[in-house]
Amino acid sequence: MKHFLRPTLTAAALAVALGITAGAQAQTSSSAAAPVANKAQASQILGYQMVGSIPGVIRQNVDPAVVGQAVTAALSGQKPNISDAQAQAVWKEFMTEMQAKAKAEFDAESSKNQAAGSAFLAKNKSVSGVKVTASGLQYQVLTPGSGARPGPNDTVKINYTGTFVDGRVFDSSQQNGGPVSIPLAHVIPGFREGLQLMQVGGHYKLFIPPNLAYGSEPSRFPEPNATLIFDITLISTGPTPAGAQDGAAPGGGAPGGGDAGGGQQ
Description:
Blueprint (H helix, E strand, L loop, with lengths): L8 H10 L3 H9 L8 H14 L3 H4 L4 H12 L8 H41 L5 E3 L5 E6 L10 E11 L4 E4 L7 E4 L5 H9 L5 E6 L19 E12 L26
Antiparallel strand pairs: 1-2, 2-6, 3-4, 3-5, 3-7, 6-7
């Protein structure tokens, strides 16, 4: 049991975070008694946190009762009843199967989203007031603006709501505490193009096909090949301050980010 089944670095990191060292323990024993926590509730929270870190495809393909028995045995200090070599072989086979299942599920979702988005855009382009650019971006002017027009490297301040074609909201400035300031240099192409069509004071809707959004890159958005809809009001625009290019943004894609929101306030 030297490698595969030994305690992980996560456990070691947890011990460090808790200050579990000889010095810390000695210091605690000499100090006043700490408040007694609810052990049952803490145990429940730990269990949910452990499960929360496990991908859904794995959770759906294991036996919860057996997992629970293994956790109980491990917490009690019992040794596994299989060898390290056996464990590695079984886990490798299981993970190969899970990767295949995950890919199949991802591909199915990607195809479903692509079809739904294409059908929506084909119908939407005929809606009164909707215009289509050369790139395939669709937009609708709800209220024209009269102020400045953003440049490709500007930072814009906006109110927005982002939805999927079925109406589900995936992000909004309201969720982020109010109007959000975003450097346009690091947002998805359709969002950047749409904002540059607007003028300050304008209220637009952008209908962004997958190739101008996140496409089929699973690391950058929860749903592959999703068509995105943004309802946007442009409050202001101006040059991006030095050092402010790293903020994430709606439809975003700041380096290392990849979430759909969380621009700079």
